[in-house]
Amino acid sequence: MISLSIDEMLSRIKKGKTFEAMAEDGSFSLKVSDYVPYIGAAIHAGHRFREELKSECLLTEQDRWYEEDPATEQFIAALPIVIEGHDSRFEYDLNRSPEEAIHEVAWGKMVWTKPLSKRQKIASLLKHHNFYKVVDALVEAVEQRFGGCVVYDIHSYNYKRWDREVPVFNIGTEQVDTDRYRKLIDHWKQSLDPKRLPNLEGAEFAENDVFFGRGYFLSHITKGFQNTLVLATEVKKIYCDEETGEVFPQVVDGLRESFKRAVIANASYFVRHFLGQKSLEGFHLLSSRLDPAVLRVDRELFHLAKDFEVLGFVNPVNVETEKKRFFQSNFKNNPVFRYKHLNVDPFQFKRALFRLPVEGIRDIGMQRLYKDVINAYADKADLLATLGTEKFLYNSLRYFGEPTETEVANARFLLYLNDDMPKGAPDVMVGDEEVKAMFEESARQYGFSCRVEVAPRQVAKALVLNAKKLVKIKKGAEFTMTEARGLVHHEIGVHMVTTINARQQPLKIFRLGMPIYTMTQEGLAVLAEYLSGSLNVKRLRELALRVMAIRLMLDGYDFPKVFAYLMEEGGLDQEEAFYFTTRIFRGGGFTKDFLYLKGFHDILSYYRKGNPLDNLLIGKISLSHLDIVDEMVSRGLILPPSYKTMAFRTPENSASLLSYLVGGIK
User: Fold this and answer.
1) Does residue 29 sit in helix, strand or coil?
2) pLDDT tier at 456 (50, 70, 90 boundaries)?
3) Which of 213, 169, 165, 214 is CA-nearest to residue 191?
């Protein structure tokens, strides 16, 4: 944040420039990341106190904090225009007129050991005067640009001093034109519904209950500007212990989210019904500029995690040797898999992750997104730190989870029905080089470049390594033509499409991936198989067998027993059953594969409701984070996807039998 003189601030406001600056004396700060028809204000958030006054103040630091409004600046931090006081109200009170701004007695307590000198008072009142010069210029600029303005004047209050139940939110309207603004005021009440906050059922929103909106900030703006409404809103100090000063971060975050949502809804209502505009609504009322704090965390996180690929380590390096040994034992000996040595220290990696300055991200939605990704990478580090040990399965369950009863029931449904299904015409078989050519042709059709190579010593028949833009086909593998087409739509149409789209984004988080993005990615990929007409009963059976095999492993079945189940109940041959079982037991117990069927179910349900899939193709996104991704696209912070899955654009009609099977997945 830069430091500006008052004249420099006024000049930038007059010219319509965006900036974020602290007043030269540190008394307040102003952020204007975009000009919008509303302003957020936290005039009592400050706790700063001039050194020369501390020795003359009778109040302790805790006494002062008790009557200030800590954290209120955080509630509105995501707004494009925010003015925040940094000085304590006990030096001078911005919510009182200049004549009354310096307290002699406050809340029944004497403030000073002796009356302040004229010089001391002038120094404080000059800061009060300068603050209002900037406020006036700011409100005038917004009014001139939009024809009106709403100022969200946010405060907090101590509730334990009351001997009755008091509201979570109180709006003071005694000094505003309630006839003119009644609908907007009522809308503000509805938008700030306290029941949306955690653990606050039955809380109330009141008007003119504990406070009446009699402050100077409101009256000054109301008298000076005909088309600006100030919504003086008090928040009960449920987000801290008002007696000790302990702050509750989760409640603060809940209030940040509530205020962001409420302000956008209310400002949109103001724009539509009071300004008569429709082009500036919803997320368009938030800033379209990326917060420098987001860019910093994004850059540093990518630098840390860009080469951190779990699949690059969890695949055994001695698969073929152990397959031979397992077959020679007549399928009785448990394979002993070996893995690549880690080239990263998991502990140091986690320590570096948690040093990232995520708390500097003002927008609570984006802050949570980065926190979730950082926590997910920390869990991945735990996973790799226990590779090949008994603890690996525990960490896999922590990260990926395990099949629920419903998911096991879905798998059984698909397996039971398969026994009596007509087989259809025999399919043409193709080899690894032919499939490689199909993948390369698909990439050309999409119009992007990626590498496709045939590689030995891998478990999956085909996989995408995102960081390298590489598709690897298993050497020597054979495919039916239907299977090969499905893999092309799966790997190129979704995994590579999202890889390429992610590389075009201004934020690199979409290349790294969101928590359990695997479930959404694989769900999209199987949906692409389905909508391209490449999904068949055999493939559905494979997804179901993955769920059952993981369930059996978790129930105590060892490698030979799961292998036997896949051959006897699943109908797989020895080669298929071995590689299938290896996928499940690699690392020490890898539960990822049940997410394919679950992801397909979730994405199919989402798709059938008519929801668009486009933004899920922006990068490695999870369905649970789509709301913040949609918001970021709407605000212009990130780009819509350049490449879109062909199967989603021109879906083919699936066979009625397959549609029946898919429809049975609950």
Assistant:
1) strand
2) confident
3) 169
Task: Give the global pTM.
Answer: 0.89
Residue 194 — very low, low, confident or very high, per pLDDT cuts 50/70/90? Answer: low
Instruction: Please state, in angstroms and rounded to a whole number, the distance separating the CA atoms of residues 495 and 466.
Output: 8
**How many helical (H) and strand (E) elements, i.e. helices and strands, does the chain have?**
27, 16
3-state secondary structure 536-587: CHHHHHHHHHHHHHHHHHHCCCCHHHHHHHHHHCCCCCHHHHHHHHHHHHHH
What's the CA gap between 180 and 184, in Å, rounded? 9
> Token pair of 488, please?
């092309």
Query: In this structure, what token pair is assigned to residue 350?
Result: 């986690």
Question: Do residues 552 and 561 touch, judged by C-beta distance below 8 A?
Answer: yes
Strand 479-480 vs strand 429-430: parallel, antiparallel, or unpaired? antiparallel
Which structure tokens are listed for 342?
């880690």
Q: φ, ψ for residue 120 (rounded to 5)?
A: -65, -40
* 455 pLDDT above the threshold of 90: no
Q: Mind giving me the DSSP string for 365-419? A: HHHHHHHHHHHHHHHHHHHHHTTTSTHHHHHHHHHH----HHHHHHHHHHHHHHT
- In DSSP notation, 462-502 reads EEEEGGGTEEEEETT--EEHHHHHHHIIIIIIIIIHHHHHH
- Of the pLDDT bands very low, low, confident and very high (cuts 50, 70, 90), residue 419 is very low
Q: How many CB atoms are located within 10 Å of the residue 564 CB?
A: 16
Q: Go through the domains of the chain in sequence order and give each one's CATH number.
A: 2-289 (3.40.630.40), 309-343+386-663 (no CATH)
